[in-house]
Task: inverse folding
């Protein structure tokens, strides 16, 4: 399906962690830093953690969060307060013990060969791309987009790693006015896009657009899908995705277990 290139799930642990930093960021986002040495040692860019949020009595299921960065024994998560689960999480102070399951899923490949890595993130879709940027053997370009300037995240972190960052916002408040794919197209019009390898995380519409461009340019692309995940280990079948196999047949896979990262050429979108 992926030519043997994607990273495989290397280990899953149930781990009691401790919050060592928990701070607000603009736009309703928050940075959560956890002491989790066992998970940090085996985590792969593109994988996620399933967190049991303390004091969320109305919901028994864990909540998935992409790994944003690994720093020694610390795992960084970036999230936005959007509902009861993240609201309860946002109230947890430093020192709180929290149960983690992970790292889960299959991540991004990190061997790009001679290709230029090009990362495309929508909103907090840049979070797993930052972890990826720390593990790729060479720097490249990041295209980050959002509705407003408050949705442009981690710019300084990417630049500190030596990545070229190009921004776009739908309201024009920061960077180029338009969608992130508009900025990507502008770059491709002056560069040899066939020499790049695309990595993307964000809403489905953006991911499909990135996959379409990869097909047109003749370059590989890897997309991290964002699906509702109930159990995180493939048992509940809440995150089923259609995927094209090597023989051309289409099978159902589970995003939490078989993904969340897939080769763009294999994804069969809903209306296909």
Result:
């Amino acid at each position: 399906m992926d030519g043997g290139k994607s990273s495989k799930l290397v280990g899953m642990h149930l781990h009691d962690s401790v919050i060592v930093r928990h701070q607000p960021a603009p736009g309703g986002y928050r940075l959560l830093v956890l002491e989790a040495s066992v998970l940090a040692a085996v985590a792969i860019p593109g994988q996620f953690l399933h967190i049991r949020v303390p004091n969320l009595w109305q919901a028994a299921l864990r909540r998935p969060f992409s790994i944003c960065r690994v720093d020694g024994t610390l795992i960084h998560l970036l999230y936005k307060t959007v509902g009861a689960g993240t609201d309860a999480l946002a109230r947890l102070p430093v020192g709180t013990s929290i149960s983690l399951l992970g790292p889960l899923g299959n991540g991004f490949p990190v061997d790009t060969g001679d290709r230029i890595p090009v990362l495309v993130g929508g909103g907090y879709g840049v979070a797993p791309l930052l972890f990826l940027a720390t593990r790729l053997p060479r720097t490249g370009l990041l295209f980050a987009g959002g509705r407003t300037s408050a949705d442009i995240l981690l710019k300084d972190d990417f630049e500190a790693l030596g990545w070229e960052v190009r921004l776009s916002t739908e309201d024009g408040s920061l960077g180029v006015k338009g969608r992130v794919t508009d900025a990507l197209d502008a770059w491709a019009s002056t560069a040899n896009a066939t020499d790049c390898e695309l990595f993307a995380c964000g809403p489905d519409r953006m991911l499909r657009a990135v996959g379409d461009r990869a097909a047109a340019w003749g370059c590989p692309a890897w997309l991290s899908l964002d699906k509702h995940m109930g159990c995180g280990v493939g048992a509940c079948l809440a995150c089923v995705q259609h995927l094209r196999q090597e023989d051309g047949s289409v099978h159902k896979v589970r995003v939490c277990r078989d993904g969340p990262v897939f080769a763009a050429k294999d994804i069969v979108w809903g209306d296909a």
Observations:
- Residues 1-10 have pLDDT under 50 and may be disordered.
- The longest helix spans residues 204-217.
- Helices lie at 37-42, 84-90, 126-135, 155-160, 180-188, 204-217, 255-258.
